[in-house]
Write a structure and sequence with these properties.
The structure is a single chain. With 303 residues, the chain is α/β, with parallel strands linked by helices. 43% of the residues lie in helices and 24% in strands. The protein is built from 10 helices and 14 strands. It has a 5-stranded mixed sheet, with helices on one face. Strands 11-8-12-7-13 form a 5-stranded mixed sheet. It has a two-stranded antiparallel sheet with strand order 1-2. A hairpin with a 4-residue loop joins β1 and β2. α1 crosses α4 and α5 crosses α10. The radius of gyration is 24 Å and the shape is elongated. It starts with a helix and ends with a helix.
Amino acid sequence: MNRMHEIEVFIAVAEAGSFAAAARRLHLSPPAVTRAIAALEDRLGARVFQRTTRNVTITDIGARFLEVARRVLSDLEAAEREAMGETTVPQGHLTLTASVTFGRSALAPVVGTFLAAYPRVSVSVLLLDRVVNLVEEGVDLAVRIGDLPESRLIAKRLGTVHRILVASPAYLVAHGTPRAPADLRSHAVIAFTGLMPNREWRHQNGPRTASVALAPRLEINDAVAAIDAAILGQGITTALSYMVAGHLRAGRLVPVLQEFTLPPQPVHLVYPEARLMAPKLRAFVDFAAPRLKSALEDLAQGD
């Protein structure tokens, strides 16, 4: 039984969480799947799955091998596509992810124009306010905001955004404008939990980063809803600059305590490392990167 077949079976079992489900997915008999995993474990000299009568769980060694196995299979598929000449015509399906607000304001319009330019590519966009594990969740590319941890992902820098406090002009007329971070304690604070998870506002205080503990009048896990509440004059909220650029330009919101703003955060496109990059992914990165960079620059003009 060849190694690539064993790797394909191993990945299928890991993703399905079941030998029987993997067999159905691969159109193999359950004994054939069992033999493939046994041959793989025999060659590795270690268990890749723990099996009981009720479930199958991947071992630590199996989890580490899974990341490499997926990359090997991806490289082989890319090599086959290149050999067949697919490099000249990007095709297939891409799965992309970004935060909800960035996806709505910047990524979705770019995806629309990309689809018009590449009719043989289809796209799924996952807008999620969490960090997606690209390899484990089968995602081709993500937009990440913030400093990147060490990883084997390829990163392409698009620009920067920064955190900003905002309020409506009417609110500030009625309640006054805070002059120092501690003044926020006497104001109605609208806490978007994605940026204020511990009920504190982090800010720059001279050469160091500091924080002020707050008691929000309203906590909400959706950035757009928090911003809408601020526009209605219900209090002061924090957002990333791109989220409120249009509202700042229109005068619906004004910045507060700008001199205490934290340093800008980078924005990157990230995607798994591969020796041969799939044509559909290469086409999207080349198409989207300059457009997203331009979108970030346009949004920054509203700061």
